[in-house]
């Protein structure tokens, strides 16, 4: 009964959980008419209305039948108006939602907000990963939040909820190779991000003492060679750059990304993090030399001193604040500042955050 009333008269809301009292508006021929109805002792009573209501006595005991009769009575006494009819919009939303729920029974979770302005979903892909989706409902259906890597095409406006969902499923299917690649990278010692999400298309992997590798994958062209960036002392990183330049032509686009990276870097395997290991066990000088912590706002130290006798690490924010505070010894050049290392007082540069 509640579903029928919601579908036929979406501006009429229940007053209690027993569903024996409703108040709101019914839209008839473009006009909204306020009513307040209640079922008492099995009979429907009209407590309030802003029109000349019919007197039916105890003729009706079914709420839906009573509302239908009331609708027909008003329609017979009124002429159509050209006022805005929100009921048609709500009826369209409910129709799309009910049709969608009936057809896509395998959706893990699907909820329509009480005000009919948003739909949230959770979908399990072929790998068992749960993907989330939030849709705004206005004139059309629009994706406003999702768990996938960003893509402009996903933000298109849709007139049909089914069409939107099919487009989202297509994107999930297209991203399956990307998900498997990132899961493969997660078998290594991942330093960053701490808790990867599908949107995080990079992994910072430990590869040597005080040296890490940032691997960035294009989610929508994941068979391409990923972007590689080393973090660590220059004297140690230079050797890895040489290995890459020597072996890059042997990269197998169809191979496992971990195996290809190991061959590219001429390593036997990547270090594997122990269950109870501390991140600083391998990077015993990896903490920021200013704040003495490994992470700042979730970020690892990004800058290290190039002086071979120092090679201390710094968060960008920490080093920038330090260099700005000393003032007279710091010079700004375009989008970076140059000054003295807080540890060894040799030259060091820092991008402006």
UniProtKB/TrEMBL annotation:
<dbReference type="InterPro" id="IPR043003">
    <property type="entry name" value="FANCL_d3_sf"/>
</dbReference>
<dbReference type="GO" id="GO:0006513">
    <property type="term" value="P:protein monoubiquitination"/>
</dbReference>
<dbReference type="GO" id="GO:0061630">
    <property type="term" value="F:ubiquitin protein ligase activity"/>
</dbReference>
<feature type="domain" description="RING-type">
    <location>
        <begin position="288"/>
        <end position="345"/>
    </location>
</feature>
<dbReference type="GO" id="GO:0036297">
    <property type="term" value="P:interstrand cross-link repair"/>
</dbReference>
<dbReference type="InterPro" id="IPR026848">
    <property type="entry name" value="Fancl"/>
</dbReference>
<dbReference type="Pfam" id="PF11793">
    <property type="entry name" value="FANCL_C"/>
</dbReference>
<dbReference type="InterPro" id="IPR043898">
    <property type="entry name" value="FANCL_d2"/>
</dbReference>
<dbReference type="InterPro" id="IPR044037">
    <property type="entry name" value="FANCL_d3"/>
</dbReference>
<protein>
    <recommendedName>
        <fullName>RING-type domain-containing protein</fullName>
    </recommendedName>
</protein>
<keyword id="KW-0862">Zinc</keyword>
<dbReference type="GO" id="GO:0043240">
    <property type="term" value="C:Fanconi anaemia nuclear complex"/>
</dbReference>
<keyword id="KW-0863">Zinc-finger</keyword>
<keyword id="KW-0479">Metal-binding</keyword>
<dbReference type="InterPro" id="IPR026850">
    <property type="entry name" value="FANCL_C"/>
</dbReference>
<dbReference type="Pfam" id="PF18891">
    <property type="entry name" value="FANCL_d3"/>
</dbReference>
<dbReference type="InterPro" id="IPR001841">
    <property type="entry name" value="Znf_RING"/>
</dbReference>
<dbReference type="InterPro" id="IPR013083">
    <property type="entry name" value="Znf_RING/FYVE/PHD"/>
</dbReference>
<dbReference type="GO" id="GO:0008270">
    <property type="term" value="F:zinc ion binding"/>
</dbReference>
<dbReference type="Pfam" id="PF18890">
    <property type="entry name" value="FANCL_d2"/>
</dbReference>
């Amino acid at each position: 009964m509640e579903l029928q009333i919601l579908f036929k008269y979406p501006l009429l809301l229940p007053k209690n959980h027993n569903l024996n009292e409703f108040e709101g508006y019914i839209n008839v021929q473009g006009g909204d008419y306020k009513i307040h109805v209640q079922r008492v002792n099995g009979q429907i009573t009209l407590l309030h209305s802003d029109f000349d209501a019919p007197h039916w006595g105890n003729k009706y005991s079914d709420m839906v039948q009573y509302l239908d009769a009331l609708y027909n009575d008003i329609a017979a006494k009124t002429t159509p108006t050209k006022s805005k009819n929100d009921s048609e919009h709500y009826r369209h939303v409910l129709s799309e939602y009910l049709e969608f729920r009936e057809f896509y029974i395998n959706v893990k979770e699907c909820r329509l907000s009480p005000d009919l302005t948003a739909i949230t979903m959770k979908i399990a892909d072929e790998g068992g990963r749960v993907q989330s989706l939030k849709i705004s409902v206005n004139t059309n259906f629009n994706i406003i939040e999702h768990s996938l890597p960003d893509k402009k095409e996903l933000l298109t406006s849709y007139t049909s909820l089914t069409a939107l969902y099919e487009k989202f499923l297509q994107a999930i299917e297209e991203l399956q190779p990307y998900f498997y690649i990132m899961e493969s990278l997660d078998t290594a010692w991942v330093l960053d991000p701490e808790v990867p999400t599908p949107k995080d298309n990079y992994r910072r992997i430990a590869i040597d003492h005080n040296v890490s590798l940032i691997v960035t994958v294009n989610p929508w062209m994941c068979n391409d060679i990923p972007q590689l960036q080393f973090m660590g002392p220059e004297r140690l990183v230079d050797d890895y750059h040489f290995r890459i330049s020597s072996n890059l032509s042997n990269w197998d686009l169809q191979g496992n990304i971990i195996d290809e990276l190991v061959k590219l870097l001429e390593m036997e395997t990547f270090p594997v993090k122990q269950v109870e290991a501390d991140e600083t066990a391998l990077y015993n000088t990896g903490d920021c030399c200013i704040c003495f912590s490994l992470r700042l706002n979730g970020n690892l130290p990004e800058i290290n001193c190039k002086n071979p006798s120092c090679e201390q690490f710094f968060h960008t924010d920490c080093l920038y604040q330090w260099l700005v505070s000393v003032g007279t010894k710091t010079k700004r050049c375009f989008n970076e500042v140059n000054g003295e290392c807080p540890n060894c007082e040799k030259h060091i540069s820092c991008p402006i955050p």
